[in-house]
């Protein structure tokens, strides 16, 4: 059995998925988790069934708190973050992964409420994951730092977002293209953020040199799907506007 987004799964891997399911039955919510989700947690822990079970059980407890009632974060809970128009939905890359775009210069640490920000992270991960088509398991992110400065620097928020992604949305990020990166951000990343990123996630962050930006983007994304502001033909939709389109919850 194979999956275009997550790679081929052999009989041994599906056997471990079955073992993982048996281990997490202590939580009744685990019955609602499908096999592909179990496989992502398994892969995130190097196919160690015990570690994957601990990770999944932690996720189920967290999800119940982050989005009570089995739903997702409501728009009114993150309205302040949505109004900043810093997250956009794009097209798809050449492998069919949906694209999410972040404009980091629109985020200001002085205006950030951490509780709302964490809910916002859950909100936009749910939205982008809901766009992932059958046969694919990952999304592509473009993080644009053009205009980013000290007022935008928010290490606590960056670490919080990364930890939510790697702990509760494992194996969902296919690649994050970091573009227009100023030197000071790179220093902050290497010294204050990188140590908090797990080994499975680190290589997914690709810092694109300005000279190779056009070539890199065209290699990853067809012109018809590339955002207009990056020289393509795809208009972006702000998450605030996209929010008007109900989406299923991503697990």
UniProtKB/TrEMBL annotation:
CDD domains reported in the protein's UniProt record: SEC14 (cd00170)
InterPro entries: CRAL-TRIO_dom, CRAL-TRIO_dom_sf, CRAL/TRIO_N_dom, CRAL/TRIO_N_dom_sf
Residue ranges of every copy of the CRAL-TRIO domain listed in the record: 75-238
Pfam families found in the cross-reference section: CRAL_TRIO
Domain of life: Eukaryota
Protein's name in the database: CRAL-TRIO domain-containing protein YKL091C
Native organism: Zea mays
């Amino acid at each position: 059995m194979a999956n275009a987004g997550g790679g081929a799964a052999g009989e041994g891997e599906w056997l471990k998925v079955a073992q993982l399911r048996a281990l997490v039955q202590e939580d009744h919510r685990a019955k609602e988790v499908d096999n592909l989700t179990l496989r992502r947690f398994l892969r995130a822990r190097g196919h160690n069934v015990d570690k994957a079970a601990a990770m999944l059980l932690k996720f189920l407890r967290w999800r119940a708190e982050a989005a009570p009632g089995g739903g997702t974060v409501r728009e009114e809970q993150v309205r302040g973050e949505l109004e900043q128009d810093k997250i956009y939905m794009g097209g798809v890359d050449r492998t069919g992964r949906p694209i999410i775009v972040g404009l980091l210069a629109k985020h200001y640490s002085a205006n950030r409420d951490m509780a709302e920000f964490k809910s916002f992270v859950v909100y936009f991960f749910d939205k982008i994951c809901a766009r992932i088509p059958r046969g694919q398991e990952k999304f592509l992110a473009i993080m644009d730092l053009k205009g980013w400065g000290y007022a935008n620097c928010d290490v606590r928020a960056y670490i919080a977002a990364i930890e939510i992604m790697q702990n509760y949305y494992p194996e969902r990020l296919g690649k994050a293209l970091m573009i227009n990166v100023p030197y000071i951000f790179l220093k902050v990343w290497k010294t204050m953020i990188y140590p908090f990123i797990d080994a499975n996630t680190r290589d997914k962050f690709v810092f694109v040199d300005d000279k190779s930006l056009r070539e890199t983007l065209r290699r990853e994304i067809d012109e018809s799907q590339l955002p207009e502001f990056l020289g393509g033909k795809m208009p972006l939709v702000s998450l605030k506007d996209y929010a008007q389109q109900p989406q299923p919850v991503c697990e």
